[in-house]
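Minutes, project huddle
Topic: does the predicted pose make sense with zinc ion bound?
PN asked that the exact inputs be recorded in the minutes so nobody has to dig through chat later. Recorded below.
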Amino acid sequence: MNDRAAPQSEPRTVLLRGGDVHSPADPFATAMVVERGHVAWVGSEGAADSFASGVDETVDLEGALVTPAFTDAHVHTTATGLALTGLDLSGARTLGDALALVRAHRTAHPGERVLIGHGWDAARWPERRAPSRRELDEAADGRPLYLTRVDVHSAVVSTALLDQVPGVAELAGFHQDAPLTGDAHHAVRAAAHAAVTPAQRTEAQRAARAHAASLGIGTLHECAGPDISAEDDFTGLLRLADDEAGPRVHGYWAEHVSDDKGAARVRELGAVGAAGDLFVDGSLGSHTAWLAEPYADAPHTGAAHLDATDIAAHVTACTEAGLQAGFHAIGDAAIGAVVAGTRAAAERLGLARIRAARHRVEHAEMLTPETVAGFAELGLTASVQPAFDAAWGGTEGMYADRLGEARAGTLN
Ligand SMILES: [Zn+2]
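Predicted holo structure (C-alpha cells), as shared on screen:
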C-alpha cells in the first residue's frame, strides 16, 4: 500500500497480540507492533508484555492469523474492473439465464456504446453450448455486444459488433456461429475496448484496485500488452496507482522484443518486464493450448504463437537489457518450447545471467517432470493459478473433457 493510505487519525503505535503472526523473521510470532502504518516488530507474548505500557492501543487478535498483504501475480485490471462494474455472467446457471442477464443489462445501460460482459462458461450449462449469434442479436436488441468466456480466450459477439470489424471473417479463429478465438477474437476485443470511454476505463481500474484492497491484496501484477489492452490503458493505470491510495501495481507489457531498442521501449512505458501474457499458446477451454498430443475432444494439438527460436531471441534481448522476460504457456508443448528457448539463451549468455534475471512463465498448467527440472535449472518462476483446478479439474470437469482423465490429472 502507499504510505498515504494510512488515515491521519490512526493511533501512532499499536500492539497486536494473541494471534498467529506469519513472518519469516520469527516463525512462532504471536504479536506485532505497528508504528505509523509500518510493522516495527514481531515476536512472542513474553516480549510483547514489555511493549504493552508504551503503546497507544493494544488489540487482542483472539487467535486470528496475520499475514503480509497478498500479491495477485496475474491481473487484467481494466477487464477485472469492467467485470465488477459491468455484466457478470459467472453466476448464469443456464444459457437462458445468461441471455436474460444480457437483456436486463441492455435495458439498464441505454447510453453505452458497447455492452460488455464476462464470465460465461457453456461447459457448466445443461445446454452445453454457447449462445448463437441470433440469440445474442435478439438479447442485445441490435446493439454491439462482447461477452468473454470465463478464461477470456474466446468470446461471443453480436452482429452489430462484427460490423465494426471489417474483414473479421477472413481472420483465423472466426466462426460464423461459434465463439471467436485467436486473431478474430483479438480483433473484436480491440473494437469493443476501443468503444469504452477513458472515463469508463478509469472507473473500472479504480473498482478493481478497491476490490483488491478489500481482499487484503497489496500488490497487483498487471498483465497488459499490445494484443490484450492498449498503451494508454497501461500507462493510465500506472499513473492512477501512483496518484491514488491503494494496491501497488507492477506493470508487465507482453511485447516480443528482439533487440535493445525493443527492450528500452518496453521500459519507457513503465513496465518492469516484457512478460505477462506474451502468448506462446492459448487455453485448454478454447482448444488453443499447444499440446504435444492431440486433444481428447478435437483432432488437433492447438495453436503455437511463438516457437523456441522466437523465445530464445526474446529471453536473450531482455536478459541483456536487464529486463525480466516472461510468457503465457499452458500446454505441454508450449511449456517445452519455453524451456528449450530459455536454455538456448542460457547457452548464449551463460546460465548464471539467465537465472539472475528470474524470468517467469504464466499459468504453466501442463508441466512434465522434464519441464519442472528445466524450470529449476533455468531459475524460471511459475506464476500459477491453482484455483483453475477447483473450477475445471476432477474426473468430470472441462480438463478431463479436453485431455482425458489421465492427462487432466497431471495439471496445475
Ligand atoms: Zn492473463
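Observations noted during the meeting:
- The chain is about 40% helix and 20% strand.
- The first strand starts at residue 13 and ends at 17.
No decisions taken; revisit at the next huddle.
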